[in-house]
């Protein structure tokens, strides 16, 4: 069976069963990096009603693993979306549980913003009109400073591959405004300068932060104290 013919047809697992069955699937995928096999396994594991639980379980499984593991999961989820095996609403619902309580996650995982950014980054690379869709994905935590920090992380991850010039063009063409992400009560210019996002508002601005690895950034660059 070719991938274009695949559809979600798994059992109606409960959350505990889905968590348990997701682990070996993701472990095997990260070991062999076989996207076709992983996609086939997802269609056999999840149903349209349960795939959001698979997405949530997979996110939690890779959060504290390697940067490559998080990016690879993001690629897998983006592939499922691009191939129309999952809908955007299912994709969005899978991220919602984490995003709704992302500040609680940050207490134990200070670099949660970076980690979620690595998982969401492939959507920016692979999907048409990515920033409009990203705004919808972030609804559980936007508009807020926290949503802005997450978008900042996604952009800096993506800029390492796409470059700031191209990425800035895509951002500006989307029509998305920083006030949509951080709210109208925030100082946008200050936020842009603080997070080195000048390339989103001007094609001549360069952000040196994209040259830094995730390991080189300090947690305080992304974690705000109340």
- Mean pLDDT equals 89
SS-derived structural category: mainly alpha
CATH topology: Serine Threonine Protein Phosphatase 5, Tetratricopeptide repeat
The fraction of residues assigned to DSSP E strands is: under 5%
Q: What's the main sheet like?
A: none
Total individual domains: 1
Keywords: Initiation factor, Protein biosynthesis
Organism: Araneus ventricosus (Orbweaver spider)
GO molecular function: mRNA binding; translation initiation factor activity
GO cellular component, one term: eukaryotic translation initiation factor 4F complex
Index terms:
translation initiation factor activity, mRNA binding, mainly alpha, protein biosynthesis, initiation factor, Serine Threonine Protein Phosphatase 5, Tetratricopeptide repeat, Initiation_fac_eIF4g_MI, disordered C terminus
What's the structural blueprint in terms of helices and strands?
Elements: H1 15-32, H2 35-45, H3 51-62, H4 67-82, H5 88-100, H6 102-108, H7 112-126, H8 130-137, H9 145-162, H10 164-174, H11 178-182, H12 188-194
Helix pairs in contact: 1-2, 1-3, 3-4, 3-5, 4-7, 7-9, 9-10
Verbal overview:
The protein is mainly α and 226 residues long. The protein has one domain (15-200): Serine Threonine Protein Phosphatase 5, Tetratricopeptide repeat (Alpha Horseshoe), CATH 1.25.40.180. It is built from twelve helices and no strands. The protein has helices at residues 15-32, 35-45, 51-62, 67-82, 88-100, 102-108, 112-126, 130-137, 145-162, 164-174, 178-182, 188-194. α1 crosses α3 and α3 runs antiparallel to α4. The chain starts with 14 loop residues before the first helix and ends in a 32-residue tail after the last helix. The model is unreliable at 207-226 (pLDDT under 50). Residues 17-139 form the MI domain. It comes from Araneus ventricosus (Orbweaver spider).
């Amino acid at each position: 069976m070719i991938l274009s013919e695949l559809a979600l047809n798994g059992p109606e697992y409960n959350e505990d069963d889905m968590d348990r069955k997701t682990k070996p699937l993701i472990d095997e995928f990260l070991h062999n990096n076989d996207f076709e096999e992983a996609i086939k396994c997802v269609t056999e594991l999840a149903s349209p009603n349960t795939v959001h639980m698979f997405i949530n379980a997979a996110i939690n499984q890779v959060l504290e693993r390697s940067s490559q593991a998080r990016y690879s999961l993001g690629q897998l989820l983006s592939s499922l979306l691009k191939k129309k095996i999952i809908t955007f609403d299912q994709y969005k619902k899978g991220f919602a549980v984490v995003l709704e309580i992302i500040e609680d996650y940050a207490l134990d995982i200070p670099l949660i913003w970076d980690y979620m950014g690595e998982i969401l980054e492939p959507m920016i690379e692979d999907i048409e009109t990515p920033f409009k869709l990203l705004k919808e994905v972030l609804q559980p935590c936007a508009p807020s400073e926290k949503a802005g920090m997450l978008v900042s992380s996604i952009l800096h991850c993506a800029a390492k591959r796409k470059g700031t010039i191209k990425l800035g063009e895509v951002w500006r063409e989307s029509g998305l405004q920083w006030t949509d992400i951080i709210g109208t009560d925030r100082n946008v210019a200050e936020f842009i300068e603080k997070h080195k996002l000048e390339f989103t508002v001007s094609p001549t601005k360069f952000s040196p932060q994209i040259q830094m690895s995730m390991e080189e950034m300090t947690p305080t660059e992304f974690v705000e104290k109340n």
